[in-house]
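Page 47, continued from p. 46.
Same chain as before, 104 aa.
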Amino acid sequence: MTEKHTDPSRTDIDQLAGPALIEFGATDCGYCQRSRPWVDALMKANPQISYFRIEDGKGRRLGRSFGVKLWPTLIFLQEGKEVTREVRPVSQESILQALKMITD
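Result:
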């Protein structure tokens, strides 16, 4: 897992090569806390996927550029283009199914 700790620009995201996952959320979000172990486990098992955990909130333009309204929102990309997204995932399986869309 290659988790990035600095917020990329939208241009950086659009230019990504290969599969990537962007997770938009907030540290005090209960839904985010529930899904965090699922995402962490899947990212650990898939180190070839670029992974960005973005702290979202008021005034954060990257989340707005993706139309994020609820947390967590997981955006799955291939070559910088959105393939699918999971909003408030209900299980690790739903995240895994979305991951398969960018790795198969």
